[in-house]
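Technical annex, item 7. During the second reporting period the consortium partners agreed on a shared format for inverse folding records so that results from different sites could be compared directly. Each record opens with the tokenized structure and is followed by the designed sequence. A conforming record, contributed by the partner at site C, is shown below for reference.
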């Protein structure tokens, strides 16, 4: 990977609301992740509505099912960006997403919209998308409204300047939770696979309850930083304690 600094990513995020960094994963890492995530998705149901995608499959509880995203979730560039933007944070909704052939475009939305905060507000959500296939306009690459992270309560209308975030497999796309975006339509005859790591400020409730989703005996063997990201941590001064103690003390010996 060509060296990319935290400052460079932050500058682009501040201007556009998203930043693409290529070659974050090697071809071998992409192939292994595609095979494993694809296999885990094979039995997953498709979405229940148009927003989830009636031809889209999602893999939840990723860290209970594979170790192949432990590294990407704690990549130094990722954590460097998050440290500057969110300071204290945890994984909220890491999800494998396979957009199937014939899927329609998802409605544009900001991912921090699930929290009842007036816009604009300081960033509370940052996402990192990891494409395991080349993302193209034809197969459902994410659609983005650049600069919309600076909006107040406006919504993108028919003439909004939407761009398609095309990128090769192995890239990583950082984007702010306040940015309006949505999955694209897949007009090809093959599915499009990616994994999104959704991080939120540690004082917000996680979308997925990892303390229940990932068995404690699995968490016990994970790197300490990943344990913290899954929720075994304290948001200063004392949010998240268990019986007055650090939550990591609850893990089995």
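Designed sequence (site C submission):
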């Amino acid at each position: 990977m060509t060296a990319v600094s935290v400052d460079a990513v932050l500058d682009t995020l501040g201007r556009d609301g998203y930043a693409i960094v290529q070659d974050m994963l090697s071809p071998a890492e992409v192939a292994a992740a595609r095979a494993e995530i694809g296999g885990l998705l094979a039995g997953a149901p498709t979405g229940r509505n148009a927003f989830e995608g009636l031809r889209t499959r999602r893999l939840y509880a990723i860290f209970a099912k594979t170790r192949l995203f432990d590294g990407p979730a704690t990549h130094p560039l990722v954590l460097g960006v998050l440290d500057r933007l969110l300071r204290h944070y945890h994984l909220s909704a890491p999800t494998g997403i396979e957009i199937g052939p014939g899927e329609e475009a998802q409605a544009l939305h900001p991912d921090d919209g699930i929290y009842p905060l007036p816009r604009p507000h300081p960033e509370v959500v940052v996402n990192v998308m990891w494409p395991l296939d080349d993302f193209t306009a034809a197969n459902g690459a994410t659609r983005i409204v650049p600069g919309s992270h600076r909006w107040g309560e406006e919504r993108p209308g028919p003439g909004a300047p939407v761009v398609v975030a095309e990128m090769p497999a192995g890239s990583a796309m950082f984007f702010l939770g306040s940015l309006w975006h949505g999955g694209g339509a897949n007009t090809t005859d093959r599915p499009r696979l990616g994994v999104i790591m959704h991080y939120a400020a540690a004082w917000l409730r996680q979308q997925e309850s990892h303390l229940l989703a990932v068995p404690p005996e699995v968490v016990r063997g994970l790197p300490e930083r990943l344990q913290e990201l899954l929720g075994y941590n304290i948001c200063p001064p004392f949010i998240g304690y268990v019986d007055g103690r650090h939550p990591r003390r609850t893990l089995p010996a």
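The chain has one domain: 6-250. The two ends are 38 Å apart (CA to CA). All partners now use this format for quarterly exchanges.
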